[in-house]
Amino acid sequence: MRNNLDNTDRKILAKLQKEGRLPIVDLAQQVGLSPSPCLRRVRRLEQQGVIKGYGAYIDHHKVGMDVVGYIEVNLDQADAEGFHEAVLKEPAIVECYALSGSFDCLLKVAVSDLEAFGRLTMQEILRYPGVKSITSSLILQSLKEQVGFPIP
To answer: Domains, the chain, ranges and CATH?
Structure first.
């Protein structure tokens, strides 16, 4: 898929990552196209799955999610599917990645306070199917938060 992107597609992607609500007329002007061809390219990128969706980036503190952390999970692989199903049902888990390395999954969680974090880890995640052990880390300060990915 990557090889099918030309410079104009890359410009469109870079602009939309920074401002997903950019009107097509403004986007077209910024990437050097007229609106109709620009809209066709955006729709093609959506249909190809390059653009997976659009959303708003929320300040977690302003919606009452004052504690954000990461949980490293070691799994008994025999019950990994049960773990995956449990993760998908838990709204406090905002990201989950299966990884290579010293642990099997990395969860990003967002909760209201430390008490909620403790409940989530000790009473929920540790009891998920297949969980052998967890290690948690809380985010103390965000040094860099980047929307999207670099477009080569």
So the answer is: 2-47 (1.10.10.10), 60-138 (3.30.70.920)
